[in-house]
Fold this sequence. Notes:
By secondary structure, the chain is mostly helical. It is built from six helices and no strands. The N and C termini lie far apart (about 35 Å).
Amino acid sequence: MVLDDVQAVDSNRLRRRGFALEWFTLGWNVIGVVILAVASIAAGSVALAGFGLDSLIEIGASLVVIWELSGTGEQRQRWALKLIGGAFLVLAGYLLVQSGVALAVGHRATPSPGGIAWTAVTAVVMFTLAAGRSRTGKALGNRVLVAEGRVTFIDGLLATAVLTGVVLNDLAGWRWADPLAGLVIVYYAVREAMDIFRHHH
């Protein structure tokens, strides 16, 4: 009985940590969507626009995980995993089209100091949150939280790729670097979506 009580306390503590990580991520991305929308429009940057969409998808993914953590049952986990996998595919599709068009027409983004600063800070925050979600999800035995940790890790990779592309575009004048940054993440997003769906089936 004592052991059961200890396990229940640990489980509740881990669940509260999971909620805290999700709510923090949700708030961060709500702010990010606004900042990136302004920056991408001002700069005409495909990479920043794609990153803003990624932040929007991350908001949806956080809401999915909060919904899943607030309940129990295998059915709820299956639906949550499907939604996260779908979010990956939406992101990959958007970036593939937008980056392809930008490369085809030779579009060049204008400098965006604000976008660069936000993206750099976001990369650090996302990698930190990804590690926390992964540890907490594994400790809870919660596949949805672990999958969301991978979503956040991809978000960190995307921030790094976008940062690299925007900086190379601004400093070196490589107009192809901005849309290419969007294409970098397509492979990872599709791979993670397929991994989630294969694991689900």
